[in-house]
Design goal:
Elements (H helix, E strand, L loop, with lengths): L1 E6 L2 H17 L4 E6 L1 H5 L3 E5 L8 H6 L1 H18 L3 E5 L2 H13 L4 E4 L11 H8 L2 E4 L2 H10 L3 E3 L4 H4 L6 H7 L7 E6 L4 H21 L2 E6 L6 H8 L7 E4 L3 H7 L2 E5 L2 H8 L4 E5 L3 H10 L7 H6 L6 E3 L5 H13 L1 H17 L5 H12 L7
Parallel strand pairs: 1-2, 1-4, 2-3, 4-5, 5-6, 6-7, 8-9, 8-11, 9-10, 11-12, 12-13
Amino acid sequence: MKIMMSAGEASGDLHGGALAAELKKLRPDIELFGMGGSDMQKSGVRIIYDINNLGIIGVVEVVKHIPFFFRLRDTLKQAMIDEKPDALVCIDYPGFNMRLAHVAKELGIPVIYYIAPTIWAWNKGRAKKIVRDVAAVASIFPFEAKAYKEAGANVTFIGHPLADTVKPTMPREKALEYFRADPDKKHILLMPGSRGNEVRGLLPTMLDAAREINKKAPSQFFIPRASTISLSLLHSIIGHNPGIDIEITEGARYDLMGMCDACIASSGTATLETALMELPTVLVYRLAPFTWVLAKHLVHVKYAGLPNLLLQREVTPELLQDEVTPDHISSLVLPWLLNPAAREANVEELRDVRKALGNGGAVRNVASLVLKTAGDQEIT
């Protein structure tokens, strides 16, 4: 059996890697290939296009790169024609993957969409295209499964994969030693995103906030490098901000979260990960001005952060657009560092996030769905 996979961002590569490993476990002789990154490659996926070359976000930015995306789609279409996979798994990245799903449908290749487009938040017209082109939707949120079912899609609620994978691998004391954490300082995680545009737009403000935080609570800062972000980019930004105790880390991501006192993170999967690790987090996000104006008219949800959407209340404070300032960020982080009761109150709220994500087993569930959709008669 041969399966093609398509992920366009670091978070999708992470989910794709876990799925690939599970598929290999269930069917050791399966052949996996497609677009992805280092996590998928480590799990046995033959990468035909490396996503390190991607990192575009927002309407304005995407418009500039339309010819590139057409060429990429044609490249992957030719791969489908040449390799004749039994199924295509699209992972997140809807602006591109929905078009790729349509190509696969026209070629007679069944499509499984994993981390599906957020029709519950905006662009509900996408639901019709999903129903048209996608054989099976693997839904990771209960409210999302309901929206897809109402739209007429063949949807299965599989649970959220992070409920299985987000957990530390070492005791906190060992993590402190592993990351060379200064015992006399607070430890703060900075997660500026997995796209170059995000990092360039958010990290300088995060570092300005770090300087403000440091004045009242001496701190050590850690940046876990996303596989799609180069060290040179991080060093070039950090180099313009001397005087901050900061470490760029690789690996042991959840152990790092487990030893930190607070986090400042770009909106996205990272905020769900920090919630599952019970790490108080401030969500920050900026879009290009034109994209933001469009978003305000198109998005129909109250919150930007996944933990807040899941619980329908703000357990992860959100700062968007002009609200993203060093003063605003530091005013939200400092109470967690200076008042243990304030931090514990937030941790208690974050515990509800794991309770809301299902009973686990999501990666196994989606792997079974992929094999079944691809025509495996033995899978249960």
